[in-house]
């Protein structure tokens, strides 16, 4: 399964809720990149610079992060979050999966208005080591500024500012239509102004498509 949608549309939140309910794994490209940033690797420094500028990384760099994770989970059910983001990446993913005799069987597209997303990212905080995400309006931490699990400090992503995010949204819209066209006929669209509004629609679709999916 892949979850498509604008940055800040709630892909991570939907993935978290699916993981809590079902026995599936997740590959979060953003977290893989943040891990590199936290470790201060050459890739992490390069990725942070690109993210702050609101730019996307080259396809081959992202594929190099995704490939070992897909191979590790080839015998399990998984969600891929954050890749592909454009049609050229979808082609690479198709090729990667075909090499392992795998295929996507669920493509979800989250549709959230831009004005909602821009307000949302101003209130978004993250626990960098784990990727746990909070929002001051609808998913606040139990203790202000602290991660619920580790009590470690929260921070905002380096690209969570209005100027950078506007650039990211512009890039998203330019790339998203060709991406949806690539998966034409396979995409299920879920619209809403909040993750809680979208969740029951996504949950129902999963239940109908995969009635035997193992629960936790």
Structure write-up:
It is a single chain. The chain is of the alpha/beta class and 216 residues long. The chain is 49% helix and 13% strand. It is built from eight helices and seven strands, in the order βαβαααβαβαββαβα. It has helices at residues 11-21, 29-39, 42-52, 59-72, 87-99, 114-122, 162-182, 195-209; strands spanning 2-4, 25-28, 78-81, 107-111, 124-127, 132-135, 187-191. The strands form two sheets. A five-stranded parallel β-sheet has the order 2-3-1-4-7, sandwiched between helices. A two-stranded antiparallel sheet has the order 5-6. A hairpin with a 4-residue loop joins β5 and β6. α2 (29-39) crosses α3. The chain is globular and about 45 Å long.
What characteristics describe this protein?
alpha/beta; globular; two-stranded antiparallel ribbon; 8 helices; 49% helix; 7 strands
Could you give a quick summary of the protein structure above?
With 216 residues, the chain is an alpha/beta fold. It is built from eight helices and seven strands, in the order E-H-E-H-H-H-E-H-E-H-E-E-H-E-H.
Order of helices and strands: EHEHHHEHEHEEHEH
Mean pLDDT: 88
Q: Report the β-strand fraction as a percent range.
A: 5-15%
Straight-line distance between termini: 18 Å
Strand order of the largest sheet: 2-3-1-4-7
Low-confidence stretches: none
Write down the Rg.
17 Å
- The helix fraction, in percent, is 40-55%
Q: So what's the overall shape? A: globular
Number of strands: 7
Q: What structural category characterises the helix and strand content?
A: alpha/beta
């Amino acid at each position: 399964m892949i979850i498509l949608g604008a940055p800040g549309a709630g892909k991570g939140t939907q993935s978290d809720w699916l993981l809590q309910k079902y026995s599936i794994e997740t590959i979060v490209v953003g977290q893989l990149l943040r891990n590199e940033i936290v470790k201060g690797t050459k890739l992490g420094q390069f990725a942070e610079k690109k993210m702050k500028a609101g730019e996307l990384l080259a396809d081959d760099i992202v594929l190099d992060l995704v490939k070992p994770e897909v191979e590790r989970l080839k015998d399990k059910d998984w969600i891929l979050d954050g890749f592909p983001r454009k049609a050229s990446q979808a082609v690479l993913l198709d090729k990667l999966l075909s090499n392992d005799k795998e295929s996507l069987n669920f493509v979800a597209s989250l549709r959230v208005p831009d004005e909602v997303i821009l307000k949302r990212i101003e209130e978004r905080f993250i626990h960098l080591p784990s990727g746990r995400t909070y929002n001051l309006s609808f998913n606040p931490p139990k203790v202000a500024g602290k991660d619920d699990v580790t009590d470690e400090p929260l921070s905002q992503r380096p690209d969570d500012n209005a100027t950078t995010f506007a650039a990211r949204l512009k890039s998203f819209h330019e790339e998203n239509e060709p991406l949806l066209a690539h998966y034409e006929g396979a995409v299920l669209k879920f619209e809403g102004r909040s993750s809680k509004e979208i969740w029951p629609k996504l949950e129902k679709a999963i239940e109908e498509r995969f009635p035997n999916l193992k629960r936790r």
